[in-house]
Amino acid sequence: MKYKSFAHMNCSIAQTLEIIGERWTLLILRDAFRGVRRFEDFLQTGMSRNVLTERLKNLVDQEIMDKQPIDGKSSEYLLTKKGLQLQPVLLSITHWGDKHMANPKGIRTIFVEKKTGKPIAPMSAYSNDGRALKPNEIAIKAGPGSTTS
Amino acid sequence: MKYKSFAHMNCSIAQTLEIIGERWTLLILRDAFRGVRRFEDFLQTGMSRNVLTERLKNLVDQEIMDKQPIDGKSSEYLLTKKGLQLQPVLLSITHWGDKHMANPKGIRTIFVEKKTGKPIAPMSAYSNDGRALKPNEIAIKAGPGSTTS
DNA sequence: CAGTATCCTACGTGATACTG
DNA sequence: CAGTATCACGTAGGATACTG
To answer: Are residues B65 and B112 in the same domain?
Structure first.
């Protein structure tokens, strides 16, 4: 019995997890957002070579990262536009962890707007006119793609 | 060789993944946000009983969900406040999946503000004065908790 | 209905050696 | 430096039977 795939589920969360939900993958993406580009540098996070190879291959296949040759022997891995759009996912996870598993010495990573140097707003759902919404202020409606038949 | 734990890493993402990064866990949370409360209903997502049991136990241990007895034999699982605060994570993943793995028939799930019935704004980072920020407009700074020593 | 308990096995992981 | 290849191992996952 193989592991069940999430890919067939008609659900954005399930299908997304099928791509980025594997062990180590989100840590690789975290590193990429921090500027890591090279194979040996990604390795520092702690996974073994074969795992990194396989994860990077998947990310490239999914067009989340792009592999660019540098000089014939080396390559760099860069986030594509599709990959960059995962930033809210990483930011949301980071904020939750900051809140619930804080380092006693204080916050570990601060996200600031480059232009102003000011910290960004906490990740949250917002109304279309910019009010932060609490979880219980949001309802879920089925859209046209909600059925498979 | 056991699987390496992420828990010791001084990183909010790694520590959060240690809790909610296991297979099936985010799908259980997705169901919970949609109103699922009962063991047998969570099962419908497709995992087997022993896995669901173990995942729910972890979520309760981490105070992400709360197990409440109903009538001596049945129980319900409800998201705690800590669990509800994972909503931005789920929303971000959903939005990304909606964009990059769309169902050809249209969007599957629409999140609306209860009060107005209007769709919420797309998940994004925002500046502290409410402007949506693109990934490359954000910089990362080390905070006081960034070092372990 | 809500679990608990077993059993089996494929797969993911980790380590390491090796290559260009 | 950037992988590829191989191997051994544990365990996560799945199926299912059983209990209160």
So the answer is: no
Asked if the Cβ–Cβ distance from B140 to A34 is below 8 Å, we say: yes
Distance from C-alpha of B70 to C-alpha of B134, rounded to nearest angstrom? 47
Total tally of structural domains belonging to chain B: 2
Residue A17: CATH number of its domain: 1.10.10.10
Give pLDDT tens digits for A73-100: 789 999 999 999 999 999 999 999 999 9
- Chain A positions in Cβ-Cβ contact with residue B115 (cut-off 8 Å): 137
Tell me the C-alpha distance between B104 and B108, whole Å: 10
Query: CA-to-CA distance for A79 and A37, rounded, in angstroms?
Result: 9
Residue count (chain A): 149
Whether residue B70 is found in the same domain as residue B93: no
Contact B108 A145 (CB under 8 A): yes
pTM score over 0.85: yes
Instruction: Provide the residue range defining the domain that includes A53.
Output: 12-84
- pLDDT of B149 reads 62
Is A5 domain-assigned? no
| Candidate from A44-53, A67-76, B58-67 with smallest mean pLDDT | A67-76
Query: Can you tell me the distance from the alpha carbon of B25 to that of B23, in angstroms, rounded to the nearest whole number?
Result: 6
pLDDT, chain A, mean: 95
